[in-house]
Design brief:
The chain has 111 residues and is α+β, with helices and mostly antiparallel strands. It has one domain. It is 29% helix and 24% strand. Strands 1-2-3-4-5 form a 5-stranded antiparallel β-sheet. Strand 2 and strand 3 form a beta hairpin. Helix 1 runs parallel beside helix 2. It starts with 18 loop residues before the first helix and ends with a helix. The relative contact order is 0.15. This is DUF2794 domain-containing protein.
């Protein structure tokens, strides 16, 4: 039997990136920062989705969102990269494969 301390609410389950996923995302983020393309990020852990948002400047709309939606794991894949306009740039089951859509943009930015 599980007891809650008096006055506390049961904690709602949240979706979060694990250490391996954050390592892959932050590695990509660091390369874009070094290239001068990205300057800030934000992370949200919600009930149905975890979001890593990338910003060109602080206090603006994100230019990309990297999302993890476990409910889509058996369908299109739980990972997605979404552009500023809401368009899904890539979706899939493997995070590193999905992140490659942004790697191509970094190569173009450096050239």
């Amino acid at each position: 039997m599980h007891f809650q301390p008096t006055g506390s609410q049961p904690r709602a389950e949240q979706v979060a990136f694990d250490r391996r996923e954050l390592g892959a995302i932050l590695g990509l983020y660091g390369r874009f920062v070094a290239a001068g393309e990205w300057r800030d990020y934000g992370i949200s852990h919600l009930r149905d989705v975890a979001v890593f948002a990338v910003f060109r400047r602080t206090a603006e709309h994100p230019i990309y969102r990297i999302e993890k939606r476990p409910k889509l794991r058996d369908k299109q894949g739980q990972y997605a990269v979404i552009g500023m306009d809401g368009q899904i740039l890539k979706r899939g089951h493997d995070l590193k494969t999905v992140l490659r859509v942004l790697d191509r943009k970094l190569i173009r930015a450096i050239e």
